[in-house]
Amino acid sequence: MYSQISSNIWKSYALVLFFVAFIIGLGYVFARVTPFPWILPLAAVIAIAGSIGSYYYSDQIVLSMSNAHPATTEENAHLVNSVEGIAIAAGLPAPRIFVVDDPSPNAFATGRDPKHAVICVTTGLMEKLNRVELEGVIGHEMSHIKDYDIRLMTMVVVLAGTVVLMSDWMLRSMWFGGRRSDSDEEGGMGGILAILAIVLAILAPIAATLIQLSISRKREFLADSEGALLTRYPAGLADALEKISSDDEPLAAANKATAHLYIVSPLKEDGLINSLFSTHPPIEERIRRLRSM
Amino acid sequence: MLPFVIVVGGIVVLVILWLIVLYNSLVAQRNRINNAWSQIDVQLRRRFDLIPNLVETVKGYAAHEKEVFEQVAAARSAVSNATTITEQGQAQNQISQALKSLFAVSEAYPELKANQNFMMLQEEISGTESKIAYARQFYNDTVMSFNTTIQSFPANMVASSFGFLPHDYFAMDEAAREPVHVQF
């Protein structure tokens, strides 16, 4: 359990570092080729500005997209007690708790830090899972809050956005303006650099998305293992994941924009290509790791 | 001569900085332990406060079960009279046993089990007992983290001179490990 936690932590941070190095390298190549040396900082600033609103208001935005209502002690005593108990185990203030009326079992957590955190579950989840399974799911969501995963993924999205912007401008500048004419390199070297830049500009956005999704998957594994540590009962979450994955009902309120927040991806994501582009690791692998703890 | 002095001075500054950072982190961890311990008390207090309501509800249906009510009353006064930490721990265990007996006795009264108030109290007390367990778990986690820090190298060389000593884990009383004997 502890070794899985530390391995997923350092793997996700290694990916982030690689991502940053990749962006810097990309920015260097593009700056040499386009008539626009400030391409990297400008792309970064715009990507950050675009994400600020969604970061600060992440909780309100996602809640209004999902038709959620607050959980009350009268109606959802068990849910409230479970969330408060696991918040104590995690050493966090209790997050706000919301409920979505949907028969499909699922849950998500959002909020930029533990003080502004929100956990939301569907009525389907509360009906279909027993006590220990529900606590397993809540442990997973609480771990996302404790690890500041929303903040991390927002930063990763900013990195990906920077890559996409840079690549887009790079291709446009090649299409419209040609290369920098004041380049003092030999014609051959400058030509190779230009071709490299074009290839990178086409492939980089795909690579950025793959890196972003790989980080997301590592953090999901991390939330699984830390959630199991909070409840000291990995089988609870494993059983819950089995129940959730065997349930075929699609979640009405989810779409591609919010899919990454849920405990189990509400979209269909089977097959090799799909799994590379999936925000969540395959469920069989998650269950296998939990049962081996 | 001068470069040597600069290097030595730099090393001294770094060591002092490390000591400051270490000391502050140990202070923060120790405060976290104290906070975690108080959190356990908060939950124990909550459970204690829920009991009178529960006793009244059960008495409404099973007034003649005198033994179990006496057990509960004895446990509550044990908590109020406990002074040392050991006594408090034992008194809280008494409350756990008394509550187990009370719920076990309630199993024989289907009307009581269907009572809304009883079901709500049962959920509240069950939730509070879970929170007590989680609070104890978190306390043990903070103690483990603190002990690991002060026992690791190189912090172990200076920790005790700063006054940071290993803390004890929360341990269950031997008596509380034995199963409850319920007689109908």
Task: Describe this entry's structure for a reader.
Chain A is mainly α and about 290 residues long. Chain A has helices spanning about 1-35, 40-55, 60-65, 75-90, 125-130, 130-145, 150-175, 185-230, 235-245, 270-275, 285-290; strands at about 70, 95-100, 105-110, 120. Chain A has a domain at about 70-150 and about 215-290: Zincin-like. Chain A has a 4-stranded mixed beta sheet, with helices on both faces. The longest helix of chain A is centred in the C-terminal third of the chain and has 45 residues, at about 185-230. The relative contact order of chain A is 0.16. With about 180 residues, chain B is an all-alpha fold. Chain B has a domain at about 50-165. Chain B is built from 7 helices and no strands. The chains are: A mainly alpha (about 290), B mainly alpha (about 180). The interface of A and B includes residues 85, 86 and 91 of A.
Count helical runs of chain B: 7
Going by CATH, what is the homologous superfamily of the domain at 69-149 and 217-291 in chain A? Metalloproteases ("zincins"), catalytic domain
Number of strands of chain A: 4
Basic shape of chain A: elongated
CA-CA gap between termini of chain A: 6 Å
Output the helix-strand order of chain A. Answer: HHHEHEEEHHHHHHH
Computed over alpha carbons, the radius of gyration of chain A is 22 Å
Radius of gyration of chain B: 25 Å
Largest sheet of chain A: 4 strands, mixed
Looking at how many chains there are and whether they match, the oligomeric state comes to heterodimer
Query: Which spans of chain B have pLDDT < 50 for at least 5 consecutive residues?
Result: none
Shape of chain B: rod-shaped
